[in-house]
What we know:
The structure is a homodimer of 389-residue chains. By secondary structure, the first copy, chain A, is an alpha/beta fold.
Amino acid sequence: MIKGLSKEQVAMVQHIKLLKQQAGSHSPSLFTIKEQLPALKMGIDACFLSNPYATDLFLDYFKKELLGEDLAIRDMLEFYPSQNNVIASSLASFLKVPAEMLFVGNGAIEIIQAVIHNFTNQKIIVNIPTFSSYYEFIKPGVSIVFNKLKKEEEYKLNVQDLLKLVHLEKPDTVVLINPNNPNGGYITKAEIAELLEGLKNVGTILLDESFIHFAFENDQMDPLSYVDMVLKYPNVVTIKSMSKDFGIAGIRAGYAIMHPNRIKQLLSNGFLWNSNGLAEYFFKLYTREQFQKEYEVVRKQYIRDTQEYFKILNEIDAIKQYPSQANFALLELKSGILADDFAFGLLVKSGVYTRTCSDKIGLDGEFIRLASRSAIENKEIITAIKDAL
Amino acid sequence: MIKGLSKEQVAMVQHIKLLKQQAGSHSPSLFTIKEQLPALKMGIDACFLSNPYATDLFLDYFKKELLGEDLAIRDMLEFYPSQNNVIASSLASFLKVPAEMLFVGNGAIEIIQAVIHNFTNQKIIVNIPTFSSYYEFIKPGVSIVFNKLKKEEEYKLNVQDLLKLVHLEKPDTVVLINPNNPNGGYITKAEIAELLEGLKNVGTILLDESFIHFAFENDQMDPLSYVDMVLKYPNVVTIKSMSKDFGIAGIRAGYAIMHPNRIKQLLSNGFLWNSNGLAEYFFKLYTREQFQKEYEVVRKQYIRDTQEYFKILNEIDAIKQYPSQANFALLELKSGILADDFAFGLLVKSGVYTRTCSDKIGLDGEFIRLASRSAIENKEIITAIKDAL
């Protein structure tokens, strides 16, 4: 337990541990915890991996364009959203990707599910620690091979190790998440190129770039490269969540870029009206130059704030921070305290909710994952952590 | 063609016919048509099968509760929705169904897809004419047997015919849609009881009740019966869209009641965060007594208006109206005009969009499907139809 908890607070920690057990590999949301523990101080959700400045930006447009006199949102609530290919068409020219290569999902998670259910039939290689759905979503009969990232290499993907394992195991699917969750480990463009070339005989490469907007390799994003990539490597499926970078997880919006034949297969027996009215509105916004210009400002602001936050976290002796090029950091607790005790203790004491990694396979030690929030909240998070240690 | 179209209007009809061809078994939305034909007069969407009074009711709550000073909708946009089982729990006591028997979908269509992909492995029997997804969503290798409803029986389901066909064909799945779309044909409670008893050896019975709130058999709905039914017939999966009765198709909300083992199977490898923030809000509203009371008023008002509308339509000589206990009617054009010509001609001439049934298999003749809208719009629709004939 962390220092300075009252008896009542210790009991609350125990209660949250139970909720965590029930929730399995997806921690209970702050709302769920709050419902069960009304006495809990609601503070900062540092489990939640999104850019809060981008949420503000979206809300500005939402208020201005949908909540005006004519309440334009009415149409979005009343009528069916457009079909997948219609929304894909509206995204296509902005992304400079043919509509036939774009699949729109009810969040990236729906696409992950669709791809794994449809294209993974024998064996999948997943680098761990990572986002558990990639191996939890497999169909019965599919085998999983874990490529355990090495603690001594700070859980960074080792390209040669992975290529060797693929050569040995001959999977039909390999998952690459860049940056990886929960550690933020980044695969450089040069490494991605080497991997794709080395993996070109694998049936499906899932390249999840849900956190790529937060990577600091360069300031520019280059959507053109995806078309080149899929033309050169038709086995690649690139998946992109909108929840994190645009701060709109509640809307459920994501897309994927993949070979047209795969999309034809997916749409041949499903995925009707799988978007919703607000997601369709968001995607229209997303393709507008003015919105993108304003988004680019808040993206960079958030990256700068995150780097500042990481710098201060790095100076705290009792935790080791692993290298991250995402909007969160994996922290190892060196003081002997268990991750659940720390995370839930911090929540009941300071109202700061961090993600325990006690359920993550592939981590040796006690870890939490800490999101970057707004600059003001980040300061409060740091104060709370220092206070708890 | 209908009478009195200008050359430009005839060209517009031809253009819409092309869009219809591209759209296959799901007609292009009025938005899509409008985007391509900006000169089109936007009038009434009588393709769209929902209660407009219920949309108004939802909007009242939406404005009052989500768009107030604190803009409570922000949380719904920013944060992930709850998981399936959490939303199911909040619905359970209202529906008097255990949470383990409730599956929440991104619209009923996601549930139809999930059920057919997971539980239909050999042969499916579908009564036609009907909603095409039921046979379009089958996996490769599954065979379809159509039970063609008889025109001379006004496309009403004949229980004995279906039972005989099932006996002969031994399918693993039978689809029952009540009331049926596109004709509104109703299966009485006594007939449902007879069918479920006769079909108890079939693997899966899909009972789609998406339009049941509009059936006039009685004024009360009785959710208790579903639990009894699934306890007695564990092969039944009841599917319920919220889009039609509550007028919120853009939100994407639906649920299903089925045996807990089926839900366990579905959730074991997918369906994370498959709802969205607004759908979760709607479901909370749905369980509130005051909302249900107000909903019941607008449901009955809409049924009364629909019955009045049907009565007037029935008096038009050039069309035959088939018996419907839903919020739409199947109309046969007796004057020799093609369904597409009539539907698209009516749209360009009067701005009234009706659903051509030219793509529907199982109909012999020229048919359109006409939705009931508000009382005022229904009058305009009737005027437009009389004018066109």
